[in-house]
TrEMBL record:
Cross-referenced Pfam families: DUF4440
Residues of the signal peptide: none
SUPFAM superfamilies reported for this sequence: NTF2-like
The organism's taxonomic lineage, starting at the top: Bacteria, Bacillati, Cyanobacteriota, Cyanophyceae, Nostocales
The protein, known as: DUF4440 domain-containing protein
Coiled-coil stretches: none
Entries under Gene3D superfamilies matching the protein: 3.10.450.50
Organism: Calothrix parasitica NIES-267
InterPro entries named in the record: DUF4440, NTF2-like_dom_sf
Domain DUF4440: residue ranges: 49-161
Amino acid sequence: MKFKNYLNKFAFVGITLAMILIYQFGLINSENITAQAIQISNQDTEFKELISNSLEAWNTNKPDNLAKFYAQDPELKFYDALPMQYQGWKDYQTGIQQHLFDNMPKFTLTANDDIQSHRQDNLAWTTFTWHLSAELNNGTPIETDGRQTDIWEKRDGKWLIVHEHISSPVSL
């Protein structure tokens, strides 16, 4: 009988201890999940603001206003709709002036509400879709949708785009 009482007490203590550990682990785990959610939320807010500010710069039709968002390294690649690619910021700056802004006096890019950001240390990538309302020099209106992926690198405390890929759906 004493042995049975000992087993019952041992089982009770063991179950109680297990419940306490599970409860504490649950609290730690839920705190981590909450902390991660807050970090993701703050991160999304930071990149939503960066993207909004960069699109405002695009909407000025002046590549010089965009320069502060892009790393200036000559070996970086930027993929745009026209032409297929640019090599380095200087090439991109010249190309968007020639292919876009010189041909479209009215140019308005608007990000849709689907911006996502992912961050790993000093690197991040963002994805979003956008709408372009523009007008060619001859008055022809353009309304189109596209998608964009940017790779960002934090340099000297500032996020800069080190790679950009812009595309639009194609009807086949």
